[in-house]
Predict the structure.
Amino acid sequence: MGQLTSDVFEPALLELVGDFLPSNQVTPVICCGMVGARQGWIEAPYLSVPCKPPGIGNAIGPEVKDPRLDVHILPGVSQNLPADVMRGEETQIGGFLQNNPGFDGAVCLPGTHTKWVQVSAGEIVSFRTFMTGELFSLLSERSVLRHSLVDEGWDEAAFNDACNDAMTSPQHLSARLFALRAGSLLHGLTPSKARARLSGSLIGLELAGSRPYWLGREVAIIGAVGLAGLYDRALTGVGVSATIADAEAMTLAGLSSAFVKMKEQNK
Amino acid sequence: MGQLTSDVFEPALLELVGDFLPSNQVTPVICCGMVGARQGWIEAPYLSVPCKPPGIGNAIGPEVKDPRLDVHILPGVSQNLPADVMRGEETQIGGFLQNNPGFDGAVCLPGTHTKWVQVSAGEIVSFRTFMTGELFSLLSERSVLRHSLVDEGWDEAAFNDACNDAMTSPQHLSARLFALRAGSLLHGLTPSKARARLSGSLIGLELAGSRPYWLGREVAIIGAVGLAGLYDRALTGVGVSATIADAEAMTLAGLSSAFVKMKEQNK
């Protein structure tokens, strides 16, 4: 998306789905996420918390040239204070609530910008975004630490230890990071351990900061298998037993739900 | 240095100083810092804390081809637990101690990898490295935040507030970072304020983590003017009145001191 200007979203979409579009009818296309951002296809203004996950009634339709297309972009959700935004996660939460209509608790959506969301009575009540995934990418790929964690290996005990350390003393984060480099230089800290420690340090910091969300609450994780598993293990370490839902499945459930609503309205 | 292999350090040095070398005598060249790292000219093994700042007696001499050169590389200092290393800062501390021989307290050397060093009885007792400067660079230049702090502006009140916030609740770091992006999207947070808040958030986190170093101690900052001033103002906010020494002057004082010792020994 970062490379597309507003006028090339339609050609980009047609390149992906054009071959599947029947020529003699109009096909609804329902979208969510950054496609509705200011730098996206067309801006779909945020709904503000507290609110239900946006539905088809909140969608914005960009003008299209191809008569086979009928495009609807679901908006994201914003929060005034502390200032925060999401685009895409609200639709995954909508999908999750389809399957778990009475859910009352915290939804964690790990990723580049991990969201912790308080959900109650079918509404998104409040949320907070943590830059955990982006910090991990920057530090593992672009910082001096990249020399110390070159492989894809993993050490579960190192992850757990780092997670605990970060929750206990979050103020040591930036010193703990450099200790990975020093440990590699002085004590032969292995790349697998260093990688797991980096991940544990950042996820532990996030769990320390998101404590009001998960403490004593029902928790669901919506994420890709590997990352959701990491968060699950970190949460297990603090006595939280989370439900896991697949991110892609929840996105599709949220979009499908909007589609079904649209068909019902058009009847 | 990252682009030099071991065998091209001598040509690189000659390119810089060759024109100043008298042809009829041997000129001593005293170096410190990453030139003595494993990936440098020749590895100068670390001295281990507690130790005096390394002097000429600890220097390693690489073989050179040019008969006008007599090169000495001062080693860095390491710490076993927590694992930590420095190269260059120990020489600046040596220079500082030349001017302040009785100094007993904490020396802060802000930079890409900021060091907090406990100095007592002329020795480096212990130290801790914080990745504050590198985090600032990565986040301001390569993360999603770069869109929110495009200029070089500055807002002192925003810096102070962010510093206080980070010291009070270091566990919110990664959420506080994303709030800069959200604040810019939702509330028109200016690039100057966002930039100062980012800096304050990271320096505040460091001050929270380095508290055992500065609390109730005499504190000296060895740094470039702008950065040293930032740290000074952050420390003033927690009631610490620091002495400031210029980084380049301290490096030269440390190297000069090693040179003087060498001349005395050769007499």
Observations:
- Chain B touches chain A through 45 residues (CB under 8 Å).
